[in-house]
Amino acid sequence: MRGGDARNWDEEGYRTSVIEEREALTLTVFRTAFAPSPNPNPNPDIIVAACSDGSVAPFSISSFISSYPSSLKSNDHHQHLLDNQVADPLYSLQGHQGPAYDVKFYGDGENALLLSCGDDGRILAWSWKEILNSVMPSDGKGNYFDPVFYLVNPQHKGPWGALSPIPETNAISTDVQGGRIFAATGDSCAYSWDVETGKCTMEFRGHSDYLHCIAARCSSNQIITGSEDGTGRIWDCRSGKCTRVLNPTKDMTEGKGQKHAYRWVSCVAVDASETWLACGSGSSLSLWSLPTYDCIWSYETQFPIQDALFDKNQILAVGAEPVLTRFNIDGKVLSQIQCAPQSAFSVSLHPTGEIVVIRLHPSVLLYLVESVSQHA
After folding, report:
1. For residues 72 and 101, is the Cβ–Cβ distance under 8 A?
2. Domain for residue 90, yes or no?
3. Considering the domain boundaries, does residue 36 fall inside one?
4. Structure pTM?
5. Where does the record place its WD repeats (predicted)?
């Protein structure tokens, strides 16, 4: 039996490979976003994931589906299209020091900017056109692109001029027409950034704990934030003032004798008409009328809601249970289907309305929307 040449042993390389393998096994995807398609193809083929290792990873949907057995695709049309297939990203942008928590696209078409934020308190903006037109190395890894620009959360001054740590950015939202990026951060504040100048133009202060989520209501020049303090707040972007405080579970917890029950607002989503607000708070999902600020209904779930979105007049929600739930606008559960992740942090809807993506690593989970709506 012949052994290897110990003189060529790379101890540091071996240690690095072990760490990378362990990180891959525990990698978490916190957010996903479909990429805009270059004309004339109107259907996005790439979805981008914000990952716990600080990377921003694009995946090709068509490449993955084409590798799946055609017989299974046809037979399982009314089941989930893809379940436990492992997909590798096209490449991996190593953008953040610490986890990347959110990813969004600013603008449409090939001139769009890919935005990401994370634990390091930075918002990075890459040229999506440059990424699409670049030839990536065979391993698909590395920091081969410089951001077009980056934004860093402000630090607050303490006694004797000491500066606070840079707070993390947990979520971002955009207002393309107004040229703004909004950030929900770990210092209990939200910030508005001017894309052209790169300057922070507004600070929204009023929450008593860190922010989980943020959504822009551009038609009314407002943003909506959700916090660990258990409230949602609606803010006027012209003045920076809070115009309304929403307490999604106040009546519910007090009515059940759980006045001190711990609740947090984990996700907020605004529909296309910007009339309705879906709010995940603790183990409940509620719907609010934005013109009147009334809570229309609140539905108690068996698990914490971690993400929600509107699909026309319906709502898709996921959370700390392997279930994708569809609600109608009246709060009735239309369907629930099982999914592989025991806890799903993100749900994204393909613009064509055909595919739902729940999580990308270690499995890519693609579901036909038709099967989601029909499966009981």
Report:
1. no
2. yes
3. yes
4. 0.86
5. 93-127, 204-245
